[in-house]
């Protein structure tokens, strides 16, 4: 997720001095992966690089620089987790610290704009050196940038020397999260599920004709579609989206299911309800000539097996777990060819 971009801009909007901390290089075991972010101001902090003594120490470094208000705006701290911090992980973490200024708004806005593209963009941070001033730039992703993707062979190391400029450079791919979830229904379960998905790495489209059911404020990764033609949302959703049909009306559920069964590029198709509802819908679909193998794609009841309960919050947790498992499986599948190519070389 890229909530750190909006949070950093929020601090700049309020002229609140803050330091952005990025896990730039992980050696061995560590609480978080390369690319994880922490944002620190004098009195608050947002997001996490894993908690514990590492995060406490990072916040201490950041606030000391904010108080001093001198020195470089970008620097690296290398922290051995075992001997220095007493954490059981035992690895080494290199953290990039960036004290944000009004001038940083340019690249933050560029990142936010770049996330509107399916490909995303690349952020590069040069720490400078002899004769070279520190810099930040945002550019389109290219083939070379793929080596720095979250699933590539160098995913644990975003920081390395720049052979041309002769300075350390952090390069990180900033992409929209590939998990796009479309939820039909703003009832109790829909409300509970959006509350959870709003904290997870995904993009959510929330659909219902009943505009008054939507809350006044939704998470940054959630967009609302108040429409009386929800079938159009199915047609417009990007390939490999995940769909959850959980409206207040069984007839509407059935119409949406039939519309969705026409697509062949759906990553997940969940329908709220019991086994009895599933059997009734299967019978109706067969009567309409829909092939059994298409109907078999429907997940009903929804949710990770073994998580039982009918309370909206319990159903929401079970569904979120099912979607996260799907996301992990897709990441492993996409990473396999990259790792195989890396080993071949």
Automatic annotation (TrEMBL):
Pfam families: XdhC_C, XdhC_CoxI
InterPro entries: FAD/NAD-bd_sf, MoCofactor_Util/Proc, Xanthine_DH_XdhC, XdhC_CoxI, XdhC_Rossmann_dom
Ranges annotated as spanning the membrane: none
UniProt domain XdhC- CoxI: residue ranges: 12-68
Positions of the XdhC Rossmann domain: 181-323
First and last residue of the signal peptide: none
PANTHER family according to UniProt: ALDEHYDE OXIDOREDUCTASE MOLYBDENUM COFACTOR ASSEMBLY PROTEIN, XANTHINE DEHYDROGENASE SUBUNIT A-RELATED
Name used for this protein in its record: Xanthine dehydrogenase accessory protein XdhC
Organism name: Castellaniella hirudinis
Gene expressing this chain: xdhC
